[in-house]
Design goal:
Layout: H1 5-26, E1 33-37, E2 40-43, H2 44-60, E3 64-68, E4 72-74, E5 78-89, H3 91-95, E6 102-109, E7 112-120, E8 125-130, E9 134-137, E10 140-141, E11 154-157, H4 167-178, E12 183-185, H5 190-198, E13 204-208, H6 212-224, E14 228-230, H7 238-241, E15 243-247, H8 249-264
The protein binds adenosine-2'-monophosphate (2AM) and calcium ion (2 copies).
One calcium ion binds near residues 46, 88, 89 and 91.
Protein backbone atom coordinates (compact mmCIF):
# COMPACT_ATOMS: atom_id res chain seq x y z
CA UNK A 1 0.00 0.00 0.00
CA UNK A 2 1.12 3.60 -0.48
CA UNK A 3 1.04 5.60 2.74
CA UNK A 4 1.80 9.11 1.58
CA UNK A 5 -0.25 12.07 2.82
CA UNK A 6 -1.53 12.54 -0.74
CA UNK A 7 -2.79 8.96 -0.94
CA UNK A 8 -4.53 9.32 2.41
CA UNK A 9 -6.34 12.41 1.12
CA UNK A 10 -7.39 10.70 -2.10
CA UNK A 11 -8.45 7.42 -0.54
CA UNK A 12 -10.41 9.13 2.25
CA UNK A 13 -12.31 11.26 -0.26
CA UNK A 14 -13.07 8.29 -2.50
CA UNK A 15 -14.24 6.04 0.34
CA UNK A 16 -16.56 8.76 1.59
CA UNK A 17 -18.10 9.17 -1.86
CA UNK A 18 -18.39 5.40 -2.17
CA UNK A 19 -20.71 5.24 0.83
CA UNK A 20 -23.06 7.62 -0.95
CA UNK A 21 -22.90 5.64 -4.22
CA UNK A 22 -23.52 2.32 -2.52
CA UNK A 23 -26.60 3.63 -0.75
CA UNK A 24 -27.97 4.89 -4.07
CA UNK A 25 -27.21 1.63 -5.88
CA UNK A 26 -29.34 -0.14 -3.29
CA UNK A 27 -32.38 1.85 -4.38
CA UNK A 28 -31.51 2.63 -7.95
CA UNK A 29 -35.12 2.40 -9.10
CA UNK A 30 -35.93 5.53 -7.07
CA UNK A 31 -33.12 7.67 -8.50
CA UNK A 32 -33.85 10.79 -10.46
CA UNK A 33 -32.26 10.38 -13.88
CA UNK A 34 -31.73 12.96 -16.57
CA UNK A 35 -30.07 12.87 -19.96
CA UNK A 36 -27.08 14.98 -20.96
CA UNK A 37 -27.32 13.77 -24.56
CA UNK A 38 -28.22 10.61 -26.49
CA UNK A 39 -27.67 7.65 -24.14
CA UNK A 40 -25.76 9.91 -21.77
CA UNK A 41 -27.32 9.62 -18.37
CA UNK A 42 -26.66 11.47 -15.20
CA UNK A 43 -28.33 10.63 -11.95
CA UNK A 44 -28.66 12.10 -8.51
CA UNK A 45 -26.05 9.49 -7.49
CA UNK A 46 -23.37 10.98 -9.80
CA UNK A 47 -24.06 14.48 -8.54
CA UNK A 48 -24.07 13.57 -4.86
CA UNK A 49 -20.85 11.56 -5.07
CA UNK A 50 -19.16 14.35 -7.01
CA UNK A 51 -20.13 16.88 -4.37
CA UNK A 52 -18.60 14.71 -1.64
CA UNK A 53 -15.36 14.31 -3.63
CA UNK A 54 -15.11 17.95 -4.49
CA UNK A 55 -15.62 19.11 -0.92
CA UNK A 56 -13.19 16.60 0.57
CA UNK A 57 -10.42 17.25 -1.99
CA UNK A 58 -10.80 21.04 -1.88
CA UNK A 59 -10.65 21.01 1.91
CA UNK A 60 -7.52 18.86 2.03
CA UNK A 61 -5.69 20.58 -0.84
CA UNK A 62 -6.98 24.15 -1.17
CA UNK A 63 -6.28 25.79 -4.51
CA UNK A 64 -5.87 22.67 -6.65
CA UNK A 65 -7.86 22.90 -9.89
CA UNK A 66 -10.63 20.48 -10.85
CA UNK A 67 -11.95 18.81 -13.96
CA UNK A 68 -15.22 17.33 -12.79
CA UNK A 69 -17.46 15.24 -15.01
CA UNK A 70 -20.60 17.01 -13.88
CA UNK A 71 -19.20 20.34 -12.65
CA UNK A 72 -16.74 20.98 -15.48
CA UNK A 73 -13.41 22.74 -15.14
CA UNK A 74 -12.72 24.87 -12.09
CA UNK A 75 -9.46 26.78 -12.03
CA UNK A 76 -7.62 26.83 -8.72
CA UNK A 77 -4.94 29.25 -7.56
CA UNK A 78 -2.46 26.37 -7.86
CA UNK A 79 -2.21 25.78 -11.61
CA UNK A 80 0.34 22.95 -11.22
CA UNK A 81 -2.14 20.56 -9.62
CA UNK A 82 -5.42 19.45 -11.17
CA UNK A 83 -7.86 16.77 -9.97
CA UNK A 84 -9.73 14.75 -12.60
CA UNK A 85 -12.87 13.42 -10.99
CA UNK A 86 -15.36 10.90 -12.31
CA UNK A 87 -17.73 10.28 -9.41
CA UNK A 88 -19.39 7.35 -11.16
CA UNK A 89 -17.71 5.69 -14.12
CA UNK A 90 -20.15 3.20 -15.58
CA UNK A 91 -23.38 5.12 -15.08
CA UNK A 92 -25.20 3.01 -17.65
CA UNK A 93 -24.31 -0.14 -15.71
CA UNK A 94 -25.26 1.51 -12.43
CA UNK A 95 -28.68 2.56 -13.66
CA UNK A 96 -29.36 -0.93 -15.03
CA UNK A 97 -28.41 -2.55 -11.74
CA UNK A 98 -25.26 -4.07 -13.26
CA UNK A 99 -22.61 -4.12 -10.50
CA UNK A 100 -19.67 -2.85 -12.55
CA UNK A 101 -18.87 0.80 -11.87
CA UNK A 102 -16.27 2.84 -10.02
CA UNK A 103 -15.17 6.16 -8.63
CA UNK A 104 -12.07 7.52 -10.34
CA UNK A 105 -9.84 10.34 -9.11
CA UNK A 106 -6.60 11.28 -10.81
CA UNK A 107 -4.13 14.02 -9.95
CA UNK A 108 -2.18 15.77 -12.68
CA UNK A 109 0.96 17.60 -11.56
CA UNK A 110 2.87 19.89 -13.92
CA UNK A 111 0.98 18.53 -16.90
CA UNK A 112 1.62 14.85 -16.15
CA UNK A 113 -0.48 12.25 -14.37
CA UNK A 114 0.95 11.92 -10.90
CA UNK A 115 -1.46 9.81 -8.84
CA UNK A 116 -4.68 7.86 -9.24
CA UNK A 117 -7.29 6.11 -7.14
CA UNK A 118 -10.06 3.91 -8.55
CA UNK A 119 -12.54 2.22 -6.24
CA UNK A 120 -15.03 -0.48 -7.12
CA UNK A 121 -17.45 -0.34 -4.18
CA UNK A 122 -19.28 -3.55 -5.08
CA UNK A 123 -16.18 -5.76 -5.07
CA UNK A 124 -14.52 -3.58 -2.40
CA UNK A 125 -11.48 -3.24 -4.63
CA UNK A 126 -9.30 -0.18 -4.13
CA UNK A 127 -6.68 0.55 -6.77
CA UNK A 128 -4.04 3.16 -6.00
CA UNK A 129 -0.95 4.44 -7.76
CA UNK A 130 1.45 7.27 -7.22
CA UNK A 131 4.36 8.16 -9.46
CA UNK A 132 7.41 6.11 -8.58
CA UNK A 133 5.60 4.18 -5.82
CA UNK A 134 4.00 1.38 -7.82
CA UNK A 135 0.37 0.38 -8.21
CA UNK A 136 -1.64 -1.60 -5.67
CA UNK A 137 -4.98 -3.38 -5.43
CA UNK A 138 -6.00 -3.34 -1.77
CA UNK A 139 -2.63 -4.35 -0.29
CA UNK A 140 -1.24 -6.28 -3.24
CA UNK A 141 1.38 -4.82 -5.57
CA UNK A 142 0.18 -4.90 -9.17
CA UNK A 143 1.97 -5.98 -12.28
CA UNK A 144 0.54 -6.11 -15.80
CA UNK A 145 0.17 -9.58 -17.31
CA UNK A 146 3.11 -11.41 -18.81
CA UNK A 147 1.11 -13.03 -21.61
CA UNK A 148 2.60 -12.42 -25.02
CA UNK A 149 0.76 -14.89 -27.21
CA UNK A 150 -2.36 -13.05 -28.37
CA UNK A 151 -4.24 -16.34 -28.54
CA UNK A 152 -4.03 -16.46 -24.72
CA UNK A 153 -5.06 -12.85 -24.20
CA UNK A 154 -8.26 -11.19 -23.04
CA UNK A 155 -8.64 -7.64 -24.28
CA UNK A 156 -11.13 -5.08 -23.00
CA UNK A 157 -12.63 -2.37 -25.17
CA UNK A 158 -15.16 0.43 -25.15
CA UNK A 159 -17.82 0.53 -27.83
CA UNK A 160 -18.65 4.02 -29.11
CA UNK A 161 -22.00 4.94 -27.62
CA UNK A 162 -25.17 6.15 -29.27
CA UNK A 163 -24.64 9.48 -30.98
CA UNK A 164 -20.85 9.53 -30.54
CA UNK A 165 -17.88 7.98 -32.26
CA UNK A 166 -17.13 6.13 -35.45
CA UNK A 167 -18.84 2.75 -35.36
CA UNK A 168 -17.44 1.40 -38.69
CA UNK A 169 -13.90 2.20 -37.54
CA UNK A 170 -14.54 0.43 -34.24
CA UNK A 171 -15.91 -2.62 -36.06
CA UNK A 172 -12.79 -2.82 -38.25
CA UNK A 173 -10.61 -2.77 -35.14
CA UNK A 174 -12.79 -5.27 -33.35
CA UNK A 175 -12.89 -7.60 -36.36
CA UNK A 176 -9.12 -7.77 -36.56
CA UNK A 177 -8.57 -8.05 -32.83
CA UNK A 178 -11.23 -10.65 -32.10
CA UNK A 179 -9.78 -12.93 -34.77
CA UNK A 180 -6.45 -13.01 -32.89
CA UNK A 181 -7.21 -13.06 -29.17
CA UNK A 182 -8.82 -15.49 -26.73
CA UNK A 183 -11.60 -13.04 -25.93
CA UNK A 184 -12.78 -9.45 -26.07
CA UNK A 185 -14.75 -7.86 -23.20
CA UNK A 186 -16.90 -4.73 -23.05
CA UNK A 187 -17.52 -4.12 -19.39
CA UNK A 188 -18.71 -0.53 -19.42
CA UNK A 189 -16.29 1.36 -17.18
CA UNK A 190 -13.13 2.76 -18.74
CA UNK A 191 -11.60 3.29 -15.30
CA UNK A 192 -12.11 -0.36 -14.32
CA UNK A 193 -10.85 -1.53 -17.72
CA UNK A 194 -7.56 0.27 -17.14
CA UNK A 195 -7.48 -1.06 -13.57
CA UNK A 196 -7.97 -4.58 -14.98
CA UNK A 197 -4.95 -4.08 -17.25
CA UNK A 198 -2.88 -2.86 -14.29
CA UNK A 199 -3.96 -5.94 -12.32
CA UNK A 200 -3.05 -8.31 -15.15
CA UNK A 201 -6.64 -9.52 -15.46
CA UNK A 202 -6.95 -8.10 -18.95
CA UNK A 203 -3.90 -8.13 -21.18
CA UNK A 204 -4.90 -5.03 -23.13
CA UNK A 205 -7.59 -2.39 -23.61
CA UNK A 206 -8.47 0.14 -26.24
CA UNK A 207 -11.15 2.83 -26.51
CA UNK A 208 -11.81 6.05 -28.38
CA UNK A 209 -14.07 8.95 -27.34
CA UNK A 210 -13.10 8.79 -23.71
CA UNK A 211 -12.96 11.86 -21.51
CA UNK A 212 -10.00 12.98 -19.40
CA UNK A 213 -11.70 12.00 -16.13
CA UNK A 214 -12.52 8.49 -17.48
CA UNK A 215 -8.84 7.62 -17.92
CA UNK A 216 -6.75 9.99 -15.77
CA UNK A 217 -6.38 7.66 -12.77
CA UNK A 218 -6.18 4.51 -14.90
CA UNK A 219 -3.26 5.81 -16.96
CA UNK A 220 -0.98 6.17 -13.95
CA UNK A 221 -2.15 2.81 -12.58
CA UNK A 222 -1.17 1.00 -15.78
CA UNK A 223 2.19 2.75 -15.98
CA UNK A 224 3.02 2.10 -12.35
CA UNK A 225 2.12 -1.56 -12.90
CA UNK A 226 4.73 -1.74 -15.66
CA UNK A 227 2.30 -1.37 -18.55
CA UNK A 228 2.27 0.83 -21.61
CA UNK A 229 -0.28 3.43 -22.74
CA UNK A 230 -0.60 5.56 -25.86
CA UNK A 231 -3.25 7.42 -27.80
CA UNK A 232 -4.72 5.77 -30.90
CA UNK A 233 -2.02 7.39 -33.05
CA UNK A 234 0.78 6.03 -30.89
CA UNK A 235 1.54 9.34 -29.16
CA UNK A 236 1.24 10.60 -25.61
CA UNK A 237 -1.91 12.67 -26.11
CA UNK A 238 -4.39 10.29 -24.46
CA UNK A 239 -6.00 13.07 -22.44
CA UNK A 240 -6.08 15.55 -25.33
CA UNK A 241 -7.23 13.13 -28.03
CA UNK A 242 -9.54 11.06 -25.84
CA UNK A 243 -8.23 7.74 -27.07
CA UNK A 244 -6.26 5.09 -25.27
CA UNK A 245 -4.49 1.86 -26.12
CA UNK A 246 -3.08 0.08 -23.07
CA UNK A 247 -1.54 -3.24 -22.19
CA UNK A 248 1.62 -5.07 -21.42
CA UNK A 249 4.45 -4.17 -23.75
CA UNK A 250 3.74 -6.81 -26.39
CA UNK A 251 -0.05 -6.64 -26.42
CA UNK A 252 -0.12 -2.84 -26.38
CA UNK A 253 2.23 -2.67 -29.37
CA UNK A 254 0.12 -5.17 -31.33
CA UNK A 255 -3.19 -3.43 -30.45
CA UNK A 256 -1.72 -0.10 -31.48
CA UNK A 257 -0.62 -1.48 -34.83
CA UNK A 258 -4.14 -2.79 -35.50
CA UNK A 259 -5.86 0.40 -34.34
CA UNK A 260 -3.62 2.60 -36.51
CA UNK A 261 -4.22 0.38 -39.55
CA UNK A 262 -7.98 0.38 -38.99
CA UNK A 263 -8.16 4.15 -38.86
CA UNK A 264 -6.20 4.48 -42.14
CA UNK A 265 -8.44 1.93 -43.86
CA UNK A 266 -11.50 4.14 -43.26
P1 LIG B 1 -19.59 7.28 -17.64
O1 LIG B 1 -20.32 6.12 -17.13
O2 LIG B 1 -18.94 8.08 -16.57
O3 LIG B 1 -20.34 8.11 -18.62
C1 LIG B 1 -17.36 3.17 -21.27
O4 LIG B 1 -17.11 2.96 -22.59
C2 LIG B 1 -16.90 4.54 -20.86
O5 LIG B 1 -17.55 5.54 -21.64
C3 LIG B 1 -17.21 4.82 -19.44
O6 LIG B 1 -16.05 5.37 -18.92
C4 LIG B 1 -18.39 5.77 -19.46
O7 LIG B 1 -18.30 6.74 -18.44
C5 LIG B 1 -18.24 6.44 -20.79
N1 LIG B 1 -19.53 6.70 -21.40
C6 LIG B 1 -20.51 5.82 -21.61
N2 LIG B 1 -21.54 6.39 -22.24
C7 LIG B 1 -21.18 7.66 -22.44
C8 LIG B 1 -21.81 8.74 -23.08
N3 LIG B 1 -23.01 8.61 -23.64
N4 LIG B 1 -21.17 9.92 -23.11
C9 LIG B 1 -19.94 10.04 -22.55
N5 LIG B 1 -19.29 9.04 -21.95
C10 LIG B 1 -19.90 7.86 -21.90
CA1 LIG C 1 -19.35 9.41 -14.85
CA1 LIG D 1 -16.75 8.16 -17.09
Amino acid sequence: MIRTPLMTVMVDAVMKAARSLKRDFGEVENLQVSRKGPSDFVSAADRKAEQVLREALAKARPGYGFVLEEGGRIEGGDTQNVWYVDPLDGTTNFLHGIPQFAISVGLERDGKMYAGVIYDPIKDELYVAEKGQGAFLNNRRLRVSARTDLADCVVACGIPFLGHGNHPEFLRELGTIMAKVAGVRRMGSAALDLAAVAAGRCDGYWERNVQTYDIAAGLILVREAGGFVADADGGEQMMQKGSVVAGNEVVQRELLRIVRTASKAG
